[in-house]
Design brief:
By secondary structure, the protein is of the alpha+beta class. It has helices spanning about 20-35, 40-50, 100-115, 125-130, 155-165, and strands at about 15, 55-60, 70-75, 85-90, 120-125, 135, 175-180. The structure holds coenzyme A.
Length: about 180
């Protein structure tokens, strides 16, 4: 999918990863590795390859130099037919503070609305960033791709020991946030 930026300060194309896997898979792996380097590569690869039009969707922003500068993953929420969980939001370290984080969230919202979804949920340590975008604290939700959140810390620690996961165990600063769309 090619699209023009909604933000006049920035140039970017919005792509579904599954439409351009051959071109951007390596770049997305490298981008996610910047922030979550310990996550198992094979598991990550399998997850990225599941991207499809009906969720999960891995969304990327590509700049004029064909560099992938931002990524997020959108999945269906288990308990809410019209709920979307957004995870793995990341902007390339070299491109932060320029509006790409806001841009990818706005594009994710736009896509969710197009797919007739009514709410976006996320779990984050970056409360202030999302607050600026209109997100408010809410209850936790789960998605098929985020079952770690229904486990106790002990269970989670055990699983992470096996899979080498990237979630933080000490999640006292982590909050759930959501936004109604439309
Ligand atoms: C968080 C992240 C996605 C923000 O992306 P970014 O491109 O730097 O953010 P933007 O430039 O679009 O910022 C949009 C607005 O949010 C603000 N903002 C950005 N990061 C912020 C933060 N950590 N705390 C508070 N405000 C923040 C900006 O100042 C800007 O405000 P403005 O609209 O008033 O000018 C990026 O820093 C990142 O990839 N971090 C590492 C991965 C991560 O933590 N992801 C979130 C996990 S859920």
């Amino acid at each position: 999918m090619l699209d023009n930026s909604n933000d006049t300060r920035l140039f970017y194309q919005v792509e579904f990863l599954h439409d351009c896997l051959d071109d951007y898979l390596d770049q997305v792996l490298a981008l996610l590795g910047q922030e979550w380097p310990k996550f198992n590569r094979k598991t990550r690869l399998e997850s990225l390859k599941k991207s499809n039009n009906n969720f999960p969707i891995n969304l990327i922003l590509v700049n004029e130099h064909k560099q992938c500068v931002a990524h997020c993953r959108m999945s269906r929420v288990d308990s809410e037919l019209e709920g979307v969980l957004v995870e793995s939001v990341i902007v390339d370290k070299n491109y932060r503070g320029k509006g790409y984080g806001k841009a990818i969230m706005m594009e994710a919202e736009h896509i969710a609305i197009e797919k007739r979804m009514s709410s976006i949920y996320l779990s984050t340590f970056k409360r202030e960033f999302y607050k600026k975008l209109g997100y408010r604290e809410c209850h936790a939700v789960t998605s098929l791709s985020s079952n770690a959140d229904i486990l106790s810390k002990t269970q989670l620690r055990a699983l992470l020991g096996v899979f080498g996961g990237h979630h933080q165990i000490n999640n006292s600063d982590r909050v759930w946030m959501s936004k109604r769309l439309g």
